[in-house]
């Protein structure tokens, strides 16, 4: 009951804040933001235009403003930077963690990014420049260089003293990487283990084996490793296994969430917006969809050409035309289901391109089973309404199309990954077009053979 009351209170406060923003009532906004957590303010800010966002942001206390800013997508951070004055932007930019700073810099025009970098203190500028030196899409560009490491020869007391000195500037201290005198990663130790050990115990006695990622590894792959290992921190190393940064679990989850959103968008035949829906301009929504619509429209001409080739067949058995939407729709859906399932399995690391033949055999059997089930139902219904011969045509077509669509749908994401393309791009949009045209060919060939037309 207490939780319900608190939820109702927060919902009422959010509504009051939205009303104040709509009226641009600065006094009311100032009063309401002090009653809400940063996450609620960030979610509210995402629902308004740039001018309203800038006004709301200016009334936030400094500490709360930084929390809200860090909660926003990089595209919205860019909008705020463009709307705020230079002095406010410089202070905000300097307070960001280096990895968050780099993500924002990737969104900004080069001239603005250069000006902000030049305004940083030398040590912060050096850390940011180091991260910027890694390739786009690599985990080195998303790691944090602000961490606390300990050495195997340190005692627990010395390690705790070191942690205490760096509490203010470290990204996290709950998991501590252990590096030798050459900065080579040799293990990891948790703060819990330090607190439970005797002061004279050495780190070498406490540390345990550690998993890591190379700075040049793909960001999504490294984030997935962090999530799979269920660790709070994944150390990042260079080619010589020297410790250069860490990936925290919250940053890993952000990377995975972004990758998931991108895959879902492309599977559905649109480009990812990379920003909240309500803040995206209509032109951006159009651009994200029109390219794929044009591609699919061009691909659909294959279906039209197949229909034109078998125009005479349709003229002799007009009833065949009634089942065209059913057959190509079922085939497309079957292929999309297989492609989505395998794409997800690829993202989770459950399958690899080398598993192509295993996936082909498995999806062939799945498609065959689905085809038998759907074909049996279609045969009974079609034979009862029309004639047995037509029921046989529909049943055999569904059997063939489902088997073909599932097999192709399962193979496409693996082939895409093998040629270093995005599996989501090669999945549903192209499979739908392929299955439509191929399914019609199968349909008319079976119809001609069974009906003798």
From TrEMBL:
It comes from the Bacteria. The chain crosses the membrane at residues 366-386, 392-416, 428-451. Pfam families: CBS, MgtE, MgtE_N. Keywords: CBS domain, Cell membrane, Magnesium, Membrane, Metal-binding, Transmembrane, Transmembrane helix, Transport. It is a multi-pass membrane protein. Residues 143-206 form the CBS domain. One of its GO terms (cellular component) is plasma membrane. Belongs to the SLC41A transporter family. Homodimer. This is Magnesium transporter MgtE. It comes from Mycolicibacterium flavescens (Mycobacterium flavescens).
